[in-house]
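Before the break, one more example. Copy the sequence into your notebook; we will annotate it together after we see the structure.
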Amino acid sequence: MNRQTIARAFVVFHLTLGTVVLYQSMRSVFGPAGLRSPSGHGWHVVALAGVEAMAAALFLFGPTLRVGGAVLLLTFAVAVAAHALRGEIPGTLLVYAAGTAFVMAHGPVSWPRRLEYRGTAISA
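Here is what the structure looks like once it is written out:
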């Protein structure tokens, strides 16, 4: 596998992870336990998911990737702990956390002139 193929795969992984986390966070904010809840008991879910959504948006862009990633890891840790206290194993959150740590370790993709991953330009 050449460097360009690896770089493309990394870009796709980063953007997919960030987009999925953003989408899932927004579903939590506006879903049944969130703002649409008539009971109003989901305020903690709305607060955590709102912070997570903002962090996911930051995570998608190179200059703010590390800040967004750090906040994502913190929100994942809080959510994992909350689920664990209820006797649940939140596998999805653990995968999101591992992916976030992986992307943070490798750093951002250079935008917008050309895609670049660790010095390797990615052509369309």
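The chain has a mean pLDDT of 84. The chain has one domain: 3-122. Try to locate both features in your own notes.
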